[in-house]
Design a protein that fits this description.
four-stranded antiparallel sheet, single chain, Rossmann fold, 10 helices, alpha+beta, eight-stranded mixed sheet, 33% strand, 36 strands
Length: 655
């Protein structure tokens, strides 16, 4: 069920009365299909299911590799679909009723000499439909310095044509948005070593055909993060910024020289970290109001805001979801992707007929679960003491089963989850992977360590220069807090994480003596190797997390678990994709070699065809079963599932 549950829904868009979204399919090798549904369809919550249809059948896969993490891989305008195809990274056009897509861009090998790969993302349409504007990422070599990001205009007619560069010279661009009258373009940009949640600039220029004039910065800066500029129907510009309070709030700028003014002023986050393109936390409605989502204390909310009245008018809507993404305006109201601790992602619409919101209508569900709700663990938000007299945040899940009980005289093992990013956050959305552990009598704590988003800029910046320290302390203290409270067995603590969470996991196992076992998914073992060998988007990320490279080389060595394996005496299982461009396989292989040399029980599973984040159903299933088997062997419990054994070298001593 977990493997099938990786069939993720994402990137909701609206075109007229039709809703579109992407569906990743692990059982098709990770292919991403574009789905379509008429908003006038049935209401699943009332027992009248809608039937989404697939727009892009196999072998088409709608996914871009821009920034490696992708996002913003398609655009729909007047029924015409423009999308990036994963296998060739070209832009394609699919007209209604057409038998097959037609290419708008040429293969990389037919472009300028030396171009190895060209990727496109985050497109928007210029009124009239003759041009679209998007981010173009051109790779002229394997090094991060050989990658050029630009804003380009691209003709949309059949067969496309040569792109015209609109903006260049900055390290990164995102959110190109054309005004409703087609006369202006807004966008965000930033430069190394900053990441988009550190400091971004908001620019506006006059758009004259496929060229810009009078470009000027209207917001943002080196210590201000700007997110999702959008044009209001009256021509004013809205965006999210953390400029005043250190929290991401909504702002409006009429571009009349008076500057922006705040529409909201809450200790809440109306934005997300820009790991991917195409995110949307708010939308302008036809009646002038703004539908907006925000996160507070780890839970999502949705409301309606009158820009003229500002914060005083923000009215929260009653919805059955605690995780909200991709807020969009429809012809009848507002739509979003929603989930809660017991419900997988759904396509939801709230009618706003007569100006008053109706009940949330579930238009389609990503999957139907045949599970007893009594057997599903619910998250308990906890705030607990951590190093330096501060507090940290997490979601705690107790073991749950509708048919079994744990021994009265035994406390459960605990798995500490360290999320990736590290500038990311845990979610209260239903997660079958968490339920996999809790249904087997294992407690889970999903940690929002210092540096996570969702708690303001100050909390987000706790990792500045302190990656491998603050995050590790917060994970360790979460486990100790729950053990001291009598919730879990302090002798059977495990920690797991992927990517940056894998780094936190490896650091916790190497530099602390708290955990009895661990699992690293494509985790960073050598911070210096990551700084020297990763993709452009993250190539200077560690400057802020650890220090500038190579000036801070000593600090990198001190923070890299692979150099201190003599301090590691904890068994570890390592999972790695062999085509991972973010954390290359040599990181995992170096750690495994060190474990082997030290004679520490370990297991290593590497997967052909997998990149950063596993997408194939067979990989997901094999990893979870292998991890459970490994924990059973190390922590001393019998795995009753019929799972394939994992070779552990050397075999652990039985206790």
């Amino acid at each position: 069920m977990v493997a099938a549950g990786a069939r993720r829904w994402d990137a909701l868009q609206v075109d007229g009365s039709t809703l579109y979204w992407l569906e990743s399919r692990p059982q098709e090798g990770g292919r991403v299909a574009l789905m379509r549904l008429a908003a006038e369809g049935g209401d699943e919550s009332q027992g009248s299911p809608s039937q989404p249809e697939e727009v892009t059948p196999a072998p088409w896969s709608v996914r871009t590799r821009a920034h490696e993490y992708g996002g913003g891989a398609y655009l729909v305008a007047a029924g015409v679909v423009f999308f990036s195809n994963f296998s060739d990274q070209r832009l394609w056009r699919l007209d209604p009723g057409a038998g097959a897509p037609v290419a708008l861009t040429a293969p990389a090998e037919e472009r300028r000499p030396g171009t190895l790969s060209v990727r496109f993302a985050d497109a928007c349409m210029v009124p009239g439909g003759r041009w679209l504007v998007c981010v173009r990422e051109s790779h002229y070599g394997p090094a991060a310095t050989q990658v050029v990001n630009e804003l380009v205009a691209l003709p949309t007619g059949e067969g496309g044509g040569e792109e015209r560069v609109l903006a260049t010279g900055r390290d990164f661009y995102s959110f190109p948005r054309v005004s409703p009258d087609g006369r202006r373009l807004a966008w965000t940009c930033w430069d190394h070593p900053r990441m988009p949640w550190d400091g971004t600039e908001l620019w506006v220029a006059d758009l004259d055909g496929p060229s810009l004039d009078g470009a000027r910065m209207v917001g943002g800066g080196p210590e201000e993060s700007v997110f999702q500029p959008e044009w209001a129907p009256d021509g004013s510009l809205t965006y999210v910024s953390d400029r005043d309070s250190g929290w991401w709030n909504l702002y409006l700028d009429r571009l009349d020289g008076e500057g922006p003014h705040a529409l909201t002023a809450r200790e809440a986050e109306f934005a997300l970290p820009q790991w991917v393109f195409g995110q949307s936390t708010y939308a302008h409605l036809p009646d002038g109001r703004i539908a907006c989502s925000w996160s507070q204390a780890g839970l999502g909310h949705l409301g309606l805001l009158d820009p003229g009245a500002g914060e005083a008018s923000l009215t929260e809507l009653s919805i059955p979801h605690s995780s909200i993404s991709h807020v969009r305006a429809t012809s009848r109201g507002v739509a979003y992707l929603g989930a809660d601790p017991r419900t997988p992602r759904e396509v939801v619409e709230i009618p706003l007929g007569g100006g008053e919101p109706g009940s949330a209508r579930v238009l389609a569900r990503s999957r139907h679960l045949d599970l007893d709700p009594a057997g599903l663990a619910q998250p308990d938000p906890i705030e607990y003491p951590t190093t330096g007299g501060r507090s940290a945040h997490a979601l705690y899940y107790r073991p749950a089963s509708a048919s079994h009980r744990g021994p009265e005289d035994e406390r459960p093992p605990l798995v500490v989850m360290s999320h990736g990013g590290p500038t990311a956050a845990t979610s209260s959305a239903f997660d079958l992977a968490i339920q996999y552990w809790t249904s087997r009598g294992i407690a889970v704590v999903d940690v929002n360590y210092g540096g996570s988003t969702g708690y303001g800029r100050e909390y987000r910046q706790r990792l500045k220069g302190a990656w491998g320290i603050v995050d590790v302390d917060d994970c360790v203290n979460a486990a100790r807090y729950l053990a001291d409270r009598g919730e879990v067995d302090g002798d059977r603590l495990a920690i797991r994480g992927g990517s940056a969470g894998g780094y936190t996991t490896l650091c916790a196992l190497t530099f602390r003596d708290v955990f009895a076992a661990g699992a690293s998914y494509y985790g960073v073992a050598d911070a210096a190797a990551l700084a020297a060998d990763t993709h452009k988007f993250e190539s200077r990320y560690l400057d802020g997390l650890i220090g500038p490279w190579p000036e801070a080389e000593r600090t990198y060595w001190e923070r890299s678990p692979v150099h201190h394996v003599a301090q590691l005496s904890c068994p570890l299982i390592v999972f790695q994709g062999l085509e991972d461009p973010v954390v290359p396989p040599n990181q995992a292989e170096a750690m495994v070699a060190a474990l082997r040399e030290r004679g520490i029980p370990h297991a290593y599973l590497a997967f052909e065809g997998e990149q950063h984040g596993f997408r194939r159903a067979e990989t997901v299933q094999r990893c979870l079963e292998a991890e459970l088997y490994f924990y059973g062997a190390i922590l001393g419990f019998e795995v009753v599932d019929a799972v394939e054994p994992v070779p552990i070298e050397p075999p652990p001593r039985q206790t």
